[in-house]
Amino acid sequence: MPLNSEPLRKLGFLTIGLFDEADPRRGHESTLDIIELGERLGFDSAWVRHRHLQYGISSPVAVLAAASQRTSRIELGTAVIPLGWENPLRLAEDLATVDILSGGRLNPGISVGPPRNYDQVKGALYPDTADVEDFGYDRVQRLLDFVRGEAVTDAGGVEGFEVFSDRVQPHSPGLGSRLWYGGASLRSAQWAGEHGMNFLTSSVVKAEEIEDFTQIQLALVRKFRAHHPDGDRARVSQGLVVIPTDSATPEQRAKYEEYASKRLPRTATPQGPARLLFAPDLVGTADEIAERLYSDVAFREIDEVAFALPFTFEHEDYVQILTDIATKLGPALGWKPADAV
Q1: Minimal CA–CA distance to 236: which of 252, 250, 220?
Q2: Which of 217, 230, 266, 336 could cross-link to 234 by cystine, CB 3.0-4.6 Å?
Q3: Is the pLDDT of residue 340 over 80?
């Protein structure tokens, strides 16, 4: 195996947290069990996706609040919260509260843009202001300011028996340095860098200038760091779908290969008006996946990852995949579990 990449420093995973409409608690409990397993296996971070009006986690901050009480070490992240659905002031309060409860382990990932299917949901989401809502970077700036302790109002002080603050409470001092931007475009990478955020790059990018996924992702990483105050030390996490099969049963291997095969055609050319380009899912033994990652020019630029779990598998599949990632793939990439560092 070519050792042309620095050892992987941080290993995380991302789950969508699917559930059955008839029994939503079971799905949410499965997600919490998976996060607990991740901590036991030594993962550095666990991330949850955000899904509205679907059968996935609609309130990741609430789920991570629960996870914070079942774990003690693993970092907890969102990948990502679409800010078009949120009031930045209220979200800042929720994030700070969970960060305090977790002991400073929260890593909120966010993104901008209009809510998905906006024409169908705007009447319910913004009945009076749908046509004037701003879904651009200013919305992120508001959240950054609120989380980092900027004044919200000039009306703080004592009123009768009540004391009011001029900034979001509780204030969690370290949270502002743990905000991540999930970006797929060069403009987003630059904006995140200029505003001192961390950067999440996933298995989806925008084919703005070229149609080579790994080269596009490499350009995003370099654009971000070129505009970040910390330069090459600025934090970037790569999130690809990896499915190691070392301990999988023959039935699981067949299912995994079929899953990846069905999704492969979308990786050939950019998709839709936004020209989204998808990375192939990586299925195989840990050594085979490590070999492919070492040949990935973007992977060689980073030292932390949040590998995405597939959407539609069963709980026991995720247990097998996570166990193989922690015990086989991670070590093949030079990573050491948290309790072994």
Answers
A1: 220
A2: 230
A3: no
